[in-house]
Design a protein that fits this description.
10 helices, 6 strands, about 45% helix, HAD-like_sf, HAD superfamily hydrolase (TIGR01509 family), hydrolase activity, HAD-like_hydrolase_sf, PGP-like_dom2
């Protein structure tokens, strides 16, 4: 197959699969079990950060860091209960298949790995369209650092100026902007349009279905 000239890099949670609120509830419960009362709206704003960064962001630098691993493990176990029924967002798989047909290298850039990533891919059900996956296991620093997006571009063999990154959080938009790619935001993760635009989104759509129906006039045209 000819090498793709351009890359469409996708965040997964909240962008292609409707998992953000499951993450909110399971992080909230993990914090509660460890004796921390963290409001759900604060957890929601932090979703999209790598686990250790999320804990640090919500509990602060002066927390007892000895608890970090246990809190992350509790979240992982609680969230794992949903692996067999994670819901893809409308037309997520169709969007990836369409871009693949149009000659884009489709790369997933996600903080998920292992069984969680497998469950997300099953939900999307478009493996034939996915060129590569850049997971948390592959990088030193998660979003909002540019490394996950840069790694995705390396896997695609495409320079930043010929790539677009699609995500649902401010961390995604910051990571994409820092990596020098055009950023597209989606609202289905629950983050407001103005926040995504302030963080670097060139365009914002409701969800994958809206992006698919608007492809002609989008940065992915």
């Amino acid at each position: 197959m000819a090498k793709a000239e351009r890359a469409a890099v996708f965040d997964v949670d909240g962008t292609l699969v409707d998992t953000n609120h499951l993450h909110v509830v399971t992080w909230w419960e993990a914090f509660r079990q460890a004796g921390h009362d963290v409001p759900m709206h604060a957890v929601h704003r932090a979703v999209g950060l790598a686990s250790t960064d999320l804990v640090a962001h919500l509990l602060g630098e002066d927390r007892d860091t000895d608890q970090d691993a246990a809190i992350s493990a509790a979240h992982k176990a609680l969230y794992g209960q949903y692996f067999d029924r994670l819901p893809a967002l409308p037309e997520a798989g169709a969007l990836l298949r369409r871009l693949h047909r149009d000659g884009w290298a489709v790369v997933l850039a996600t903080s998920a790995g292992g069984a969680e990533l497998s469950a997300l891919r099953r939900a999307i059900d478009a493996d034939e369209a996915i060129t590569a996956t850049a997971s948390a296991d592959d990088v030193e620093e998660g979003k909002p650092a540019p490394e996950p997006v840069e790694h995705a571009l390396e896997l695609a063999g495409v320079p930043a100026e010929r790539a677009v990154f699609v995500g649902d959080t401010v961390w995604d938009m910051r990571a994409g902007s820092r990596a020098g790619v055009r950023c597209v935001g989606v609202l289905c993760g629950g983050i407001p349009r103005t926040d995504l635009e302030k963080a670097g989104a060139d365009a914002v759509y409701a969800d994958p279905a809206h992006l698919l129906s608007s492809l002609r006039d989008s940065p992915l045209a």
